[in-house]
Amino acid sequence: MTFSTLSKPAQLYWLSGLFGSWQTLRTVHFITVLTVILFTTAHSLLALKVGNVSEIYVFVEVL
Q1: Which of 54, 48, 2, 46 is nearest to 23 (CA)?
Q2: What is the value of pTM for the model shown?
Q3: So what's the pLDDT on residue 33?
Q4: Residues 6+ apart with CB under 8 A from 12
Q5: How many C-beta atoms lie closer than 10 Å to residue 36's C-beta?
Q6: What secondary structure does DSSP assign to the chain, as a single string?
């Protein structure tokens, strides 16, 4: 949502207005991206720590 607002502020003026200022929008975007990266990295490392990588591949293929 924040990326869309950053990339098309003229089209999504109502959405950028929800964040207040442009700097607030950028800060929320940065924190959100950092959180998603840390979350994904932590869960990937935990999955590898558990082991049974072959079972993980089977699960991914089912999806």
Answers
A1: 2
A2: 0.64
A3: 92
A4: 4, 5
A5: 10
A6: -HHHHHH-TTTTHHHHHHT-SHHHHHHHHHHHHHHHHHHHHHHHHHHHHH--HHHHHHHHHH-
> Which residues does 15 contact at the CB level (< 8 Å), separation at least 6?
1, 4, 5
Please say if the pLDDT value at position 36 is more than 90.
Answer: yes
Residue 23 token pair: 């700097």
| Per-residue pLDDT at 55 exceeds 70 | no
Exposed, middle or buried: residue 56 (CB in 10 Å: 0-12, 13-18, 19+)? middle
3-state secondary structure string across 45-59: HHHHHHCCHHHHHHH
